[in-house]
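Good day; I would like, with your permission, to put a structural problem before you. What I wish to show you is a protein chain and, alongside it, a tokenised description of its three-dimensional fold. Please examine both parts with care and let me know of anything in them that strikes you as inconsistent. Thank you for your consideration; the sequence and its tokens are set out here:

***
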Amino acid sequence: MRSSQRACTIALRPSLKGKAIGMTDIHDVPLKGGGFDFRVRVYPADTPNGTLLVWLHGGAFMFGTLEMPEADQVGRRLSAAGITVVSVDYTLAPLDALTALGPPDPDAGLPSPELMRAEMEAAGPRARFPVAGLQIVAAFDWAVDNARAYGADPGRVALGGASAGANLSAGAAMRLRDRGTTVPALLALVYPSLHDGILPPNEETAELLRNIPPARLFTPQSRAAINRNYLPDGDDPHGYAFAGGHDLAGLPRVLIVNAELDSLRPSGEAFAAELAAASVDVRVVRERDAVHGYLNEIGHPAAEHTLMLLEAAVAEI
């Protein structure tokens, strides 16, 4: 692990109460959930404002790491603003749907699907639903139990993520609501996919998407392959895999940030409407001229604006 990342892996018990080691540096904590080992990376706030965000990267449930900007940039930027961030390295789904994504955008500088598969097959054990969702609940519980050690209030713990991470956040929030104990103070969803499938775009969105390279968009076919890879039988009576279209009453307030040039935007917009109909406070923002995954582009105007939105939303809980 690079020293420039300021990260140190520390062998700690699941609770940090009474511990001081590593509390000011970025550090990893091993946890267990869903029958698998996993870890969280903690970005302690430079000057704590009393809040904490449990954050999940995306990657079609199949890939993504704690080092990608969608995870690391969020942790670094928000912790510098006073928010402790707990970034979750959840167990990924198998790679069976990788070929359904098609060839990568040649202008994006991404490796080939073959190289991606070879690298990801070396990443460790993989598992389908519900493993990752159960790990998110475990990570949230750990964050609440240990919030005070990082200068945060256990009642001011938010949960959020980007893309598949947003989906997992929503599913975990549904589980936490149904459990009837501690729930997140805020749910923050960035370019989320919250329904099982691509929702049809309206006329305005369809016109905007016509000019986007196909490799930068999810199609109904690719999304179906991703979702069946994650939840093979599609059986989701409680909305723990895909919260959209289920009973959302009782969820915490929600921030949704959609990418304008994203075939998943209709899902985020529909989910916002479903939340409002369920009397859940929701704010929905469209990042203009942005495509899916923009948090991985450091310095992108949409990424900068979304980081500001996340900071403000979490700070006010």
In short: The chain is about 30% helix and 20% strand.
